[in-house]
Amino acid sequence: MFAMSYKVQRYVILFSFLTVPLLLLAVFSFYPAIYLAWLSFTSWDGYSPEKAWVGFNNYKEIFTNADIFSVFSHNVVYFMGGIVQNILALFFAVLLNSRLRGRNTFRVLLFLPYILNSVAIAYMFTYVYDAQNGSLNALLTSIGLESWIKSWLGDAGIVNYSLAFISMWKFMGFNMVIYLGALQSIPGDLYEAAKIDGAGPFKSFLYITWPSIIKIVELSMLLTVSGALEVFDLPFVMTKGGPAGASQTFVTKSVETAFNFSNYGLASAMGMVLLCIVVLVIFVQRKLILRGEE
Amino acid sequence: MKVLSEAFQIIQKKDHKYKLTTLNYESAFPIIALVGKRIQHIFEGASSLKKKQLLSTVAVLGLAMSMAAGCGSNNGNNEGTPASNNKADNAAATNTADNAAATNTATEEPAAPKIAGKVVFTTNRTDLVDTELKTYADKFHEKYPDATVEIEAIKDYDQTTKIRMASNELADISLIPGTVKNSDLPNFYLPVDDLGLNDRIYFKDNRSQDGKLYGISSGSAAMGVTYNKKAFAAAGITAVPKTLDEFYADAEKLKAAGITPLATNFKDKWPLYGWDQEAFIYAGDPMLHNTMATQDEPFAVDGPHWQAFSILKKMVDSGYVEKDLMSTNWEGSKKDVASGKIAMFLLGNWVVPQVVDNGAAAEDVGFFPLPLDNSGEAKVILASDYYYGIDKNSENPDTAKAFLKFLIEESGYDDYAGFIPVLKDKQPKLAQLNEFMATNPKVIEMAAENDDYLAIANKMQFDTSAFAQDAIMGKDMKEVFASYNKKWKDAKAALVK
Asked: pTM for the full model?
């Protein structure tokens, strides 16, 4: 073995290192994806041995059946929540980047929700939002805001905002840490120079901080958009898409189509459409992020 | 190891090409690389936290984990639910009498089959797998010492079982998922005509195909109102309501006494399936769903569903149900009915033993048919629970069949679960049910849904309980019904194409 030439050694190492991950990737990622693509052209019901080929019918149905495509309007709420989340994250990052007493404690506290299991979070918030015994309504009562009391998960007009708030609460800390990382990479002498030139904190944020982290902001937005498109766990655990379908997201709708209504073909097509949309969004945003460098 | 480290050096230092690729990666994602380093930095800062703070962090995490574990046990909520209400198919009963006779003689084997080996039985009753069901397996083993039964409980029963069907991994004995079409039965299950049960059971035609019996009902349940007698007494109600007006009046009395009259379990959606079954009674049609499949606009104003949902609507509008429909809690509602905080359920009679399990004395729980009009005539609908089926590829089919026969004839599961036994000559054990049947209600046996209905329902994603939810939540019930009519018509038209 030691007699091998560098070239051979290189290949041996490369291939031996690559085989396992590529194999795992192929078995658990590529094969199911290709199978999914194939299923999306069939009308398979989930258990029958025969899978009838129906061409593009499933795709046609997705784009013509208002019931299916309109659930994206619920995902939009999560996207808006994501924008607020990014603003808050940036705010806290700037705040906690300054010389603040106990800033590490605050960092950890804000980051903690991200570590929690999302199903545990969902259960926790069902108790917070409970209309009769929930802590949120109890809080509103105790500070004299009875008129604000709502059925947070029962009102079709509010339920998506309630859920989006949880996802905001959970992922804000993660975004904040990313922003903190970006902020700390800005050299301190820039600020000193700005200070000497008479720039206040707002101006130095606008002309130094913001341009330095704009790329990170775009990266965060990318994560936010694809996250908003793929929301699943919160509505699935907390509302089962209710009341009367008001909190269905595209993914919970796909799951229901497959498992409750035995239409795996259509559900696979929905999966493919979502995949394409996410790829498209990422592609567009990547172009935006790299536009200055090409 | 030496080779490895050498190779790394080669790749990193000497080989320009590979170095370039790593560089390319970094230059493409300089931000990510940078951020990665910075994140490390931030947490190095964080690690200087005092011990106490770390401890509390650990405590919070531990709490979160135990909560997650708690959720798991909380979640098996619909294990008492009859599958009956959703999908079960009709026999497509094409003049099969002579067919059946032919196969019956063909399968008559003189040699007694040997009951031995291990069989697996899958069930949806995650709550009973280590208790009641285990005693069945033990008793069966006593009876046939060479045979053993392993019982496996599955959460999300229908979904998991369908996946197993698709991969030919069905257990020897299983419950047939509701959405499996009858025309698919011969692909997966063994005919069980040779058990000699054909003439002795109810719901024989529901899971038959080409004249062969593939599924035997595990029991059936009557739809009606389960109520807490003490709550009724506390509100000054002396007799169960016989007419719809009396029903509303009693609800008013309960409400006035500070007792929630009816638990709808609106949020969980599936507990609303009873309102769809009441529509069967309004229509006087045991095959209402199949009849709907022949119509373009089955949801007429003042039609069966309209009438049934109107009762629910009236209950909701008058405040005779839970205060907040979207915070209802199925497990909690059973406790509340048991303690008398809530007075009634509209569910199958299978809920009676579950209320007793939650702390009510058996004699305090009663059952009566929901009065649908003011005629005073009692009507009730019976619907079958899951059907047992035997895997076509079972290695010990005779043992599996023997266990199936044991489950039907000897186990007493139907009594335990509060079902009406599938055997015609066996009386139900549940006192409430006998009391209720003694009033001689008009009984409608719900027929299985045929492939036509299932095709339309799956196409338009029709869920009877969601329909009830929509009707109640919608601003105008007429609009909801109109939109359902339209969807039904479209789905039907799309299938004909």
From this structure: 0.73
